[in-house]
Amino acid sequence: MVKPAVDKQTSKETTLTTKPQTEEQKTSAQVETSTLDDQPSVETTTNETVESDRLQKIKEKLIDTFAYFPDYISQFYQKYQRQLKVIGSLILIILTFRLILGFLEALEGITTLSISFELIGMGYSVWFVYRYLLRKSNRQELLDKIQALKAEIVGKKS
After folding, report:
1. Disulfide: which of 20, 83, 92, 143 matches 26 by Cβ 3.0-4.6 Å?
2. Per-residue confidence band for 114, with pLDDT thresholds at 50, 70 and 90
3. Do 17 and 4 form a contact (C-beta atoms < 8 A)?
């Protein structure tokens, strides 16, 4: 036996999508209609309308975000300006350090320069020890220079 399909509507009336052909189908359709009429009407929301509402809200949020994106960036920068500068400086220092190390490694690959840099470094170390560390008066002179440099950097005498 084929049951007629019934369209769901929010009103109390129901309509049949197929017309009954036999007498038996007519009576069963009348019974179904009468039982459907006795039930209270229920408002149903389909998943499609809920999903389309959700998609519409997401779309509106995205449009608002992209429309005011420069304002969001400027507010973020104003709020975290100091931290961003510190992070940027650290990244710049790290990149500079890596660049210098790469350059020195490339120079180290040249044997003549490598040997000459080592000799220059040893010569400077010998001169520094002879000039500042052998005599007490020279050590005091070095300490005075360090204190003056420290005061110049910090801004006060310590």
Report:
1. 20
2. confident
3. yes
Q: Are 107 and 117 in contact (CB under 8 A)?
A: yes
Amino acid at position 77, single letter: Y
Residue written as tokens 């500068």?
Answer: 85
Percentages of the chain per state (helix, strand, coil), in multiples of 5: 75, 0, 25
Two structure tokens written together for 65: 């975000």
Return all residues near 72 (Cβ < 8 A) that are at least 6 apart: 65
Angle between helices 111-128 and 81-108 (to 10 degrees): 110
Q: H or E stretch including 141? A: helix 136-154
Question: What amino acid occupies position 123?
Answer: G
